[in-house]
Amino acid sequence: MTTLDSSKEIQKNNSEANETHEDFRMFGLITFLIADGMTFAGFFAAYLTYKAVNPLPDGAIYELELPIPTLNTILLLISSATFHKAGKALLKDKNSESQKWLFFTAFLGIIFLICQLFEYFHLPFGLTDNLFASTFYALTGFHGLHVTLGTLMILIIAWQSRIKGGRLTSQNMFPLEAVELYWHFVDGIWVILFIILYLL
Amino acid sequence: MTISIDPQKTNNESLQPKGWLRYFSFSLDHKVIGIQYLVCGFLFYLIGGTLASAIRIELASPMSDFMPRDVYNQVLTLHGTIMIFLWIVPVVNGAFGNYLIPFYVGARDMAFPRLNAVAFWLIPPSGLMLVASYFVDGAAQAGWTAYPPLSITTPQSGQIIWILSVLLLGGSSIFGGINFIATIIKLRRPGLKLMKLPMYCWAMLGTSLLVVLSTPVLAGTLILLSFDIIANTGFFNPVLGGNVVVYQHLFWFYSHPAVYIMVLPAFGLVSEILPVHARKPLFGYTTMVFSIMGIVVLGLVVWAHHMFTSGTPPWMRLFFTIATAFIAVPTGIKFFNWVATLWGGKISINSAMLFSCGFIINFVFGGITGVALAQVPFDIHVHDTYFVVAHFHYIVYGGTVFIIFSSIYHWFPKVTGKMLKEKLGILHFIITFIGFNLCFAPQHWLGLNGMPRRVAEYDPQFQFVNQISSLGALLMAMSTIPFLINVYLSVRNGKDAGDNPWNALTPEWLTSSPPPVENWEGEAPLVEEPYGYGKEITEGK
Ligand code: HEM
Ligand SMILES: [Cu+2]
């Protein structure tokens, strides 16, 4: 605001009317992610209860194939690292390098989703086949939705960093940091999901 | 990094309509949003109240002669849902929280004004959608708990609309919760310590923690339920291998904390009102803070006391009985602190004070029946009878709604700059108090003698007591009339209130009534002790 008009008088008025304070948008985001995490916690709790209390009849037990989800786990872990790289680069004002890392992260996210769809099409069970199948699709699908949103957000900030004098600079890291936190969160959930759903 | 809040950007005065019109427009001012919550909530309260009257008319006679049974179920479901999700929760959190919290932390607005506006504007459309579902294809019929398999097997479009509406309202309440936490933790004036905050801030902090931790679980549950309805999955459908008890666990993991989401803010509000009208500092500030946090923690782990009759194993029954009984400790502390605050004070008998005292009386009664219900053998006897109905109405109506009215009498001068008329206010209190107790006290007897809840027809032996109850409900319905007349007359030509008619010490009274857009003309005043009344009395003022 002060950049709009540098006359002493206006500066004084503005500083009286405006309150400067610490940036707490990140704090808000963390609170939101805790809430989001609780949604997953509810789903996990339901799944584990079903597993313990409602054993499936013999013929209805499916062995899940491990290769694709393992690959997906690795993809997501790598993408967390590449995202981190993007942040580092931006901090050093290397915008185009940062942008490359962002695109690469989004690319990994898209591969993850394609792999997941591929897995869906090759599974021997459908959504309504039995309780396990329903919970499986609900959990992985809800997570996939998060990956989709995350990928879209990465593409948006990558695009923003293209615009000269755009909103993503080393002075304004917030969009990148926010999406990065979200992405790490989604990765973390996947790891838990992978352990509970595929390994247990 | 620091960012600055630009009032020109957030609340562009020249673009906002002036006077009353601004309450009907999209505004980012926390005070306007607070009043919008209140008015919107009150309109839904009138709808919910009309439905309640319909229920009591039906129950005045043993047969279902006033409305058909499925209509009765729809009316009952709409009533419960509206009262909880569209009246108590939005008003006691959204309305008073938005109005007061920025004042209490010395800020000019909430932490995220835009998110705040979004949270409010989710409510009217989802509420209207819920009500309109009655006229489309019949509203949901499965009660406010939407237990499957009933909610899966009853006509589905109403149930789907119900789920959608509750999801949106849950989202609104999560956004609100995030905003309150950020405002209270991060937006405090430099130098304002947490332990110096007015008690309502603590109550809202605790409530918002509960909202953030438990509402998402309800959202997830309802999404699964909607899959069961739309996509024919079997999460909660026993026919397809699902488990209805899992639904109950997930539902009550939200809905037990939800009772504290309704009543903790009321605890906070009463803690603001009592010291002012008794001219004494709040007794035991620190214990009040710790009891709030104790209630938050315990509130999260007692949900299964709603499921003692759902086939819970003995160890679970034991654990949840003990945990539930423990909640009586922090609640009891709060009760004794309120009484100690009143003790020896210069009590002014006005409408705000009367409603607060009514709250304390009703709440003790509701709390005691709650402890009784937590005992498994007793609960098995009265579960799903009118005893439970009586218990929770003593809490939600006798507790929270009494405090909503008390708060309206207390803060009306601040919001409008006019006083409410005391004579009408006291009349309002008397009718409400008598009507309420006449309506719900007899229901304990009905429950103990075995009258089931949620049915339109009952054994003729219960008719007389039901008629007393219906008479009470009639009085409660009529009690809104003096209130509405009072508000109308006072807004038009009430006595001018001045900035601080009650000589209160909390910061909202240090600005003009009604407050200016940015809350304070100059710098925000720093209030060291929100409850420094003791000095005044000892100094013989
Ligand atoms: C703080 C405010 C409270 C509210 C708003 C509240 C509300 C409710 C509601 C709505 C129900 C009905 C559940 C249903 O539809 O089946 C209920 C039942 C119950 N409440 Fe409360 N309650 C509160 C406090 C307490 C306290 C303090 C206790 C115990 C110390 C308690 C113990 C119970 C128990 C054990 C039941 C289950 C009764 C049954 O379903 O058989 N409640 N409460
Ligand atoms: Cu409970």
Describe this structure in words.
- The complex is a heterodimer of chains A (200) and B (541).
- By secondary structure, chain A is an all-alpha fold.
- Chain A is built from six helices and one strand, in the order H-E-H-H-H-H-H.
- Chain A has helices at 8-17, 25-53, 67-91, 95-122, 131-162, 174-199, and one strand spanning 19-22.
- In chain A, helix 2 runs parallel beside helix 6, helix 4 runs antiparallel to helix 5 and helix 5 (131-162) runs antiparallel to helix 6.
- The longest helix of chain A has 32 residues, at 131-162.
- Chain A is elongated, with a radius of gyration of 22 Å.
- In chain B, helix 3 packs parallel to helix 7 and helix 11 runs antiparallel to helix 12 (351-373).
- Chain B has helices at 7-10, 30-58, 69-105, 113-121, 123-137, 150-153, 156-186, 199-230, 244-278, 285-299, 314-342, 351-373, 376-382, 386-416, 422-448, 463-493, 533-538, and one strand at residues 2-5.
- Chain B starts with a strand and ends with a helix.
- Chains A and B meet through strand 1, helix 2 and helix 5 of A and strand 1, helix 7, helix 8 and helix 9 of B.
- Strand 1 (19-22) of chain A pairs antiparallel with strand 1 (2-5) of chain B.
- Residues 256, 259, 305-306 of chain B line the site of copper (II) ion (CU).
- Chain A: One of its GO terms (cellular component) is plasma membrane.
Computed CA radius of gyration of chain A, to the nearest angstrom: 22 Å
Report the count of strand segments of chain B: 1
Shape of chain A: elongated
Low-pLDDT residue spans of chain A? 1-18
Pick out the low-confidence regions of chain B: 1-14
Order of helices and strands of chain B: EHHHHHHHHHHHHHHHHH
Output the helix-strand order of chain A: HEHHHHH
The greatest interface here is: A-B, 41 and 50 residues
Q: What kind of sheet is the major sheet of chain B?
A: none
Helix content of chain B: 55-70%
Distance between the termini of chain B: 47 Å
The tally of strands of chain A reads: 1
Secondary-structure content class of chain B: mainly alpha
Bound molecules: protoporphyrin IX containing FE, copper (II) ion
Quickly count the helices of chain B.
17
* Average residue pLDDT of chain B: 91
Query: Strand portion of chain A, in percent?
Result: under 5%
Mean pLDDT of chain A: 84
Overall geometry of chain B comes to globular
Q: Which quaternary structure do these chains form?
A: heterodimer
Helix percent band of chain A: over 70%
